[in-house]
Amino acid sequence: MDGPEIDERKSRARSWFEALRDDICMAFEKLEDDAPAQLYPGDAGRFVRTPWDRADHTSGPGGGGVMSMMYGRLFEKIGVHCSTVHGEFAPEFRAQIQGAGEDPRFWASGVSVIAHLRNPHIPAVHMNTRFVVTTKAWFGGGSDLTPLLERRRSQEDVDTIAFHQAMESACGNHNDVADYGRYKKWCDDYFYLPHRKEARGIGGIFYDHHDSGDWDADFAFTQDIGRAFLKIYPDLVRRNFKTPWTPADREEQLVRRGRYVEFNLLYDRGTTFGLKTGGNVDSILSSMPPEVKWP
Q: Which residue is catalytic, options 86, 116, 121, 126?
């Protein structure tokens, strides 16, 4: 899909993803500054940005991105990454991508966030939004929450309720193009570990191949998902970061993180997409928690 209209849309989407990245990094560094020193000693963390480039499967230039990583006193490990990549899909991957069977060329831009907190009372979180162009063009993304303590993994938990309400509200602002009920179920079905017969977390929303026929409306919806995440997750962190934890809480957190690793390595399509399109391995695997246990 070529032409001045699609080029302008690519530019707008990329600029938004990068601006959202900057706002998220700023908000999370503020949380690093504000976390109580008695629970989180040491200096507040700061994001370190590392650019990277890729080649596509023909060895031609294929774009790249910027990996933003922070290892802090509150945020044990967090990645906020932007990438804009292009080229041709490898032959064995084309049938899996909408529109790539007719023409293997593609362009994709997006922002991705994965946060692992030191405090077991603060849930891990994932968010990404993206714009993909082959012979078709669509948005995808979503956000999901992963509490690490069993007593917090309930649909009645206050954090769970607040997170779901934020995602529902973001969808509700765009009822003409977004379907919260469908996207919530899609998330529940997607972030499920069949071999464990359990969900990775408490859900959120997930959507892909989103093309209503009204690009501006679809873009506005995708932007509101990013804004909703930027509002609700810092609120949840701030609500919980004064809560002390026990060694038993930490042990439970590390075991639960193992489920996160299992899902991302066995089932996550984004991990597969990144690795099979020559993405930056460090950026792709930054979703791995810094410490984890399989007792």
A: 126
